[in-house]
Design a protein that fits this description.
5-stranded mixed barrel, globular, 16% strand, alpha+beta
Length: 290
């Protein structure tokens, strides 16, 4: 029997570990395991169990599987956790369409290869632990929002190069697939705390570029610069200040989407003719909703 559910709690008794699991239909199962299986409270798993019927039905764990590896992972997560307002498939299509519009072969191939390498996590992970887009699919949704803003920037400021801007947007937070621990109970990994997603992303660009034979290309250096500088200032984690037009645009577009998306979500929860709660990404100000 297979049970897909979120762990509510764990305890030990009778030489077994008892795992309390709730399904998307709010059914609660007590699954016993005799091994030292590594499980985390609040996380989703697929449990293969052996069912024993008697005075009391019991469930003995045979195998356990990660949800993120499943083909229908998004649909499973959607049943348990808040998700982005844009469907995962729609976000994926929009990002793939943007990659197709990148004309420079070096930039396009690197971008496509990196998204392919991390796609399971890239289209499922939140964009942050709590500050903005902190829900299933938030990372991809944030990326799409930035791409849509970029189109207006490209119209208004024709000196901006679309290839770099699209690639920088798509790749700027890809390091979060390493920086963050996952979809559930999201925290910062050891790499995330020591290196941060800006540096992780730039390092990954270098690895992929080397694999594709582009390690000496100027485009690689410019993409790496965009990633390590996209927080704008060292105070906010940038390793360098942005020094190309596209890097500067990436910084501002990222800032706009992260702040205005949170503002919209706060306004949704606010009664008209009153103020929102303090908004962290807007320097803890309150905003009036007419």
């Amino acid at each position: 029997m297979k049970i897909i559910g979120k762990i509510l709690g764990m305890n030990t008794s009778d030489g077994c570990m008892n795992v309390s699991v709730v399904t998307d239909k709010n059914e609660v199962y007590n699954i016993k395991t005799k091994g030292n299986t590594s499980l985390n409270i609040g996380h989703l798993y697929e449990f293969d169990v052996e069912v024993s019927y008697g005075e009391r039905t019991s469930y003995l764990l045979q195998e356990v599987h990660s949800i993120i590896e499943k083909d229908n992972a998004y649909e499973v997560y959607k049943s348990f956790f808040p998700v982005a307002p844009m469907d995962n498939a729609v976000a994926r299509k929009k990002i793939e369409q943007a990659i197709d519009q990148i004309e420079n072969p070096c930039i396009r191939n690197i971008t496509e290869a990196m998204v392919k390498q991390y796609e399971d996590k890239f289209f499922l992970y939140p964009a942050a632990t709590r500050m903005h887009h902190a829900y299933v699919g938030g990372l991809a949704y944030h990326t799409v929002g930035m791409l849509q803003l970029a189109d207006s920037f490209l119209v208004n400021y024709p000196y901006l190069k679309k290839d770099y801007l699209y690639a920088g947007i798509i790749l700027h937070d890809i390091g979060k697939t390493v920086e963050l621990t996952g979809v559930e109970s999201t925290e910062y990994s050891l790499e995330g705390q020591l290196l941060g997603h800006l540096v992780i992303g730039a390092m990954e660009i270098h690895k992929v570029a080397s694999t594709l034979g582009y390690q000496n290309a100027k485009e690689v250096k410019l993409l790496e610069h965009m990633l390590i500088s996209h927080h704008g200032q060292p105070l906010y984690g940038a390793a360098k200040r942005p020094m190309t037009p596209e890097a500067i645009a990436l910084w501002y577009i990222d800032t706009i989407d992260s702040k205005f998306r949170v503002l919209g979500e706060e306004l949704e929860k606010t009664t008209p003719e009153s103020f929102t709660d303090t908004i962290g990404v807007l320097d803890k100000i309150k905003v009036y909703k007419e």
